[in-house]
Prior knowledge:
321 residues; alpha/beta; Rossmann fold; Gluconeogen_factor; LPPG:FO 2-phospho-L-lactate transferase activity; Putative gluconeogenesis factor; CofD-like_dom_sf
Amino acid sequence: MVIGGGTGLPVILRGLRDQDADVTAVVTVADDGGSSGILRNYINVVPPGDIRNVLVALSELPQLELDVFQYRFRSSDQFFAGHAIGNLIISALSEMKDGIFPAVQELSSMMRIRGHIYPVANEPLTLNAEFTDGTKLSGESEISAAHKQIKRVWVTPSNDQDGHPVKPVPEVIQAIHEADQIVIGPGSLFTSILPNLMIKEVGDAVCQSKAEVVYICNIMTQKGETDHFTDADHVRVLNDHLGKNFIDTVLVNIQPVPKNYLDFKQWNEISQPVGHDFQGLRQQGCRVISSNFLRLKDNGAFHDRDRVVAELLNRLHEVHD
């Protein structure tokens, strides 16, 4: 099982699919930026962007059909400007099927998905944050744009003014209980990973699971979220939010990122390589696997999919042998 959102999750999922792993992806529904945010505001659906990318990662459709699903209209197209066709299809199916969960299951069949894709909840969620200066904000894009140090985050139902607790999709909890390995990340710590775990039943199920919980630590820090964070800081935030040291193993990249290679204008969310604090990780009870997990591409620093997946499968075999 892989829990997360954003751009890092599909990369790992595609690698696991290619190794014939039995994959369940649990995807955040708290995105409110870009095409997803516009659709969410206009037709009140769960934001489809992260789900669209996960569908493509696990699909066995021909590449042309996936390219059509991913096609994003040009900015000159006015009404459709910036929208991906897949986002429109997911939104339409959500209305037809009365919810994002049945819509994604229908699409999974249509797109020949290998594995399972579960939106973490069947309703749009709002991400809320309290910053270290005591101020609070709501909305993932607003929180990221504030560029202030985050103290804690939590999620609330977007369509409920009474504040009823967020209910996860029951299949998500069952999948967590049945998982042989729970992988968290890579992805934005506060805005892609924690929105899933902040649903109480989801966080409790992960903490109670007998499966090994593996955190894939980000290679670069993120502006406005994790500036100056070490790998131990990332894990500490996760553990603090869930109230216990639940991360068993951490994958850490130790291959240096060449400074002159990165294009900070193109990749304007990244700040600097994540620092290392192996003692801090061990103090939190983590097994540390440090290796070269780096892939340099398009003047950016990413995880090497094949190396990460090989390590995840190694851990799975070691635990169960």
